[in-house]
Amino acid sequence: MNALPLLEIEALTAGYARPVVGPLSMRLGAGEILGVAGPNGCGKSTLLAALTGSARVFSGRVCKRAGLRLSLQQQNPPEIGGVPFNAGELIALTGAGAGGLPPWLASRLGERLDRLSGGQLQFLYLWACLQAPADAVLLDEPTNNLDPDGVAFLEGALRRRAAEGAGLLVVSHDARFVGAVCSRTVRLGGSG
Predict the structure, then answer these.
(1) What is the rounded CA–CA span in Å between residue 172 and residue 83?
(2) Backbone conformation region of residue 73, classed left if phi is above 0, alpha if psi is from -120 to 50, else beta
(3) Would you state the pLDDT for residue 1?
(4) How many Cβ atoms from other residues are within 10 Å of residue 183's Cβ?
(5) CATH top-level class for 30-44+69-187?
(6) 66-to-9, 51, 69, 136, 161 alpha-carbon distances in Å
(7) Which burial class, exposed, middle or buried, applies to 192 when counting CB atoms under 10 A from its CB (0-12, 13-18, 19+)?
(8) What is the pLDDT of residue 190?
(9) What is the mean pLDDT for each group of 10 consecutive residues in the chain (192 residues)?
(10) Closest CA to 40 of 144, 145, 173
(11) Peptide bond preceding 23: is omega within 30 degrees of 0, i.e. cis?
(12) Using H for helix, E for strand and C for coil, what is the string for 133-176?
């Protein structure tokens, strides 16, 4: 394992028109699953936006290892109504592979995206993000819309991806999920 962190945040304060999160310092290493927990509205998604350059950094630093490849799963994926892609095409567009998909989704790869249920679509987006060729994977509320079987499959997929050497940053307000998959957790929004 490389001793240099994939991502390092030093005294970061970030937001949009005004600061929303910070100051925050943390590191993400290869093979690590780092949780960012806290109640809704405490700045978890804003942190990911700062890491990807879509939120304003007011102070502090975001340091990325040279050549770092990021993959981001957003909490609110784009609308897909009327988009003629099927599930297999979405997987291919991200550079991900379909091998290892749960049977309940692998059997639907030929279906249009707008014909999948909310949980199936959520898992497909997660899978595309997790399996894309990336060094660091950022997941924003990944358990949204997933049933218990989907959450259990996701937990295993995260562990396998970390074992392959990827660093995973998992943002969630689901304390049980964070406790089950993360090697350590950073809590935002006070002691709650």
Answers:
(1) 29
(2) beta
(3) 44
(4) 12
(5) alpha beta
(6) 15, 14, 9, 12, 21
(7) exposed
(8) 54
(9) 81 93 93 90 88 91 93 79 82 85 89 86 88 92 88 92 95 89 86 40
(10) 173
(11) yes
(12) CCCEEEEECCCCCCCHHHHHHHHHHHHHHHHCCCEEEEEECCHH
Rounded Cα–Cα distance for residues 175 and 38 (Å): 8
**Element holding 9 (H helix, E strand):** strand 7-15
The residue to which tokens 């749960």 are assigned: 102
Domain residue ranges in the chain = 30-44+69-187
Q: List the beta bridge partners of residue 138.
A: 72, 169
* Neighbour count for residue 167 (Cβ, 10 Å): 25
Count CA atoms within 13 Å of residue 59 on its CB side.
Answer: 7
* pLDDT for the residue numbered 51: 92
Q: What is the pLDDT of residue 184?
A: 93
Q: Give CA–CA dist 47/183, Å, rounded.
A: 19
Give me 114's structure tokens: 């707008």
Tell me the DSSP string of 50-108: HHHTSSEEEEEEEEE-TT--EEEE-SSPPP-TT---BHHHHHHHHT---TT--HHHHTT
Q: What pLDDT, on the 0 to 100 scale, is given for residue 192?
A: 37
